[in-house]
Amino acid sequence: QTVVTQEPSLTVSPGGTATLTCASSTGAVTSGHYPNWFQQSPGQAPRALIYSTNKKYSWTPARFSASLLGGKAALTLSGVQPEDEAEYYCLLYYGAVGVFGGGTKLTVL
Amino acid sequence: QVQLQESGPGLVKPSQTLSLTCAVSGGSISSGNYYWTWIRQPAGKGLEWIGRLHISENPNYNPSLKSRVTISTDTSKNQFSLKLTSVTAADTAVYYCTSLGAFASWGLGTLVTVSS
Q: Whose CA is closest to B20, among B74, B89, B106, B95?
């Protein structure tokens, strides 16, 4: 069974930079996994931030960026704001089947 | 951006079939732009990809659920649906209908509890 792994938690100071990663048990993450990133605040539905590795939506704040880094998918938040405190999930595709990572709880402190 | 709204019973008995519908507005269910996807989230846990349907492809399912899941569309009502058979307490979760990829949208989610 394919496992997608994220850091369980990260803490960042306001104005700082946070990099969240997403690893695959099958090997290096590539653009062929079409990495997606989602943000979920408590009590709310998730919100899509990134698709196809690094493509943003019209509503994705400019401080969010994504890439492939060291064999993993990565989401970078530059100039972190208090409202960025949330759970972040990555989604990878293996062929036509999607697998979510376990999520990273980002604390802004 | 399409708007999505889940509907269906909030309580299902064990061994029965969970049936949910997602109404699509602001776009056509028949459009090739969308991968209609169901995702669920047990309370306090992470997201689980259930499966997806594109209008011109066969549906794709999570291998762990594949024997129990069916996702289909109703073009006359502009909606898509989820059926999950032989449910147990482990299927209790908030169920989201979504479109993912370039044209992403999420429903608000609907809680389904499996209990007698």
A: B95
